[in-house]
Amino acid sequence: MVNTAQRRHRRSDALSKERIVAAAIEILDTQGENALTFRALTARLETGAGAIYWHVANRDDLLAAATDYVIAHAVTAGAGETDPQQAIRAIALGVFDAFNTHPWVGTQLAREPWQPAILHVFEGIGRQLQALGVPNLAQFNCATTLMGYMVGLAAQYAAGARLHLRATDRPEFLAGLAARWTQRHDAASYPFVHQQANQIATHDDREQYLAGIDLILAGIHTLR
Amino acid sequence: MVNTAQRRHRRSDALSKERIVAAAIEILDTQGENALTFRALTARLETGAGAIYWHVANRDDLLAAATDYVIAHAVTAGAGETDPQQAIRAIALGVFDAFNTHPWVGTQLAREPWQPAILHVFEGIGRQLQALGVPNLAQFNCATTLMGYMVGLAAQYAAGARLHLRATDRPEFLAGLAARWTQRHDAASYPFVHQQANQIATHDDREQYLAGIDLILAGIHTLR
DNA sequence: ACCTGAACACCGTTCAAGT
DNA sequence: ACCTGAACACCGTTCAAGT
What we know:
The structure is a homodimer. Chain A is 74% helix and 0% strand. By secondary structure, chain A is mainly α. In chain A, helix 5 packs parallel to helix 8 (116-132), helix 9 runs antiparallel to helix 12 (205-221) and helix 10 runs antiparallel to helix 11 (191-202). The longest helix of chain A has 27 residues, at 136-162. Chains A and B meet through helix 7, helix 8, helix 9, helix 11 and helix 12 of A and helix 7, helix 8, helix 9, helix 11 and helix 12 of B.
C-alpha cells in the first residue's frame, strides 16, 4: 500500500546498478572483455548511455563492480573445511574456478588489486594461517604471498582463455608452443626448456596451480 | 662501398622496428600505457600512421615487442651468482626492478605470458633448480610457481604505479586504504584485517616480494 | 530522480597515392 | 620497398532536454 505511488512511476524492469552489472557480466562471459561497450549495454538494456552513467561512474567502475560481484560469490567456498591447509586449498580452488568461468576477472583483478572482494579472501586466508600456528609477524607475508600467487596465476589463465583456447584445441596450442620454443632455441643453450618441453605441452593448469599452492604451504610449514 | 646506393636512399633517421619500439618505451615510461597512441607515435617519429604499420603489425604487436625488449635486458641479472638460491633471488629482483622502472610491463606480461623473453627467465630459473637438487619431476612445478608469482606480483605493483603513487604519497595511500578497510568492516567479523592493518599501511613492496620468493624457496627445499 | 539520445573528442586501422 | 596522411568505423563520456 505504502509504495503504490512509487511503483506506479517505475517500469517493471527499472534500471539499477545490479541490473547493469548483471548485464555486463553476461556480455563479459559470453563475448569477452572487448565486447563490453556502452553501445552493447544500451542495446541489451534498451536504454540510453546517460541512463547507465546515472548508476555507474564510468567503464572502470562497472568493471570493478562486476569483478567484485563474481569474487564475493566465489569466496564462500572453503568455509566448511576444518583442516586449515585444506581450507586454504579450497579457497584457492574457489578463486581458480571463478577465474576459469569468468576469464576477464583475472585481468581486472591484476589491474585493480584493491577491490573490496579481495578483502574477503585476505581475511579467509589469514584466519587459516593463524589456525596453522604461523607466527604473528610472518602471517602478513604468508597471506600476501598466497594472494599474489592466486591473482597472478589467474591473470595468466585469463590470457589463455582470451586466445579462444577451448578444451579441445588447448593441447594443440601448447604442443605448438613447446615445438616452436625448442626449434628456435637449441638444446645446448636451453637445456631446461628442452627437458621440460613435454611438460609444457601436456600439463594441466589446475593441477599445476594447486602444486604451487602446496609449495607455498610447504614453505609456510617450515616457519612454525 | 657495396651499400652506397642503399645508403643514399635512406634518411639518416630511417624508421625501423627498433626505433619505433624505443619511442614506444619512452612514451610508456614517461606518460603511461594510455598515452601510447599512434597519434603520439607519429608525432614523436615525425611520420604517418601507415609508416608505423609497415614495421609493426598493430598496437598489441608493438606492446609485445616493447615488453620483450625490457625483459630481455633485465634477465641478464643474476648470471654471476654461484649459490643457486642467491641466483634465483637475483633473477627475481631483476624482474622486480624492471617492473618498477617500466610499470606497464607487468600488465602486458600478465596479458600475454607467452612472450619470448619469458623463456629466458624460465630457463634461468630451471638451471638453478637443477643445481639445487630438485627432483626432475618436480622441477616444472617449481619453475612455473616461481614464474607465476613473479609475473603476478609484477602486475599488481604495476596497478599501484598506475595510480600515480610516487614514493612520497604512497604511505598516505596505503594508510588511507587500511583505514577505510578497518572502518568499513568491524574487528569482530574481520579480525585478521584489523590485526594486519598496520602491516598493510607500512609494508615495503620489495621486501614483501622477496619474502614470498623465500617462502617458495623454503617449500622447494623440502622436496629434496 | 531518472532517463533519452545526439554530439564531442578521440582512438586503431586501412588504403590509395606518392617516392 | 617504404612512407604519407586523409578517411573510416568505433569508442567512452557529456549534457541539454525530457518525464
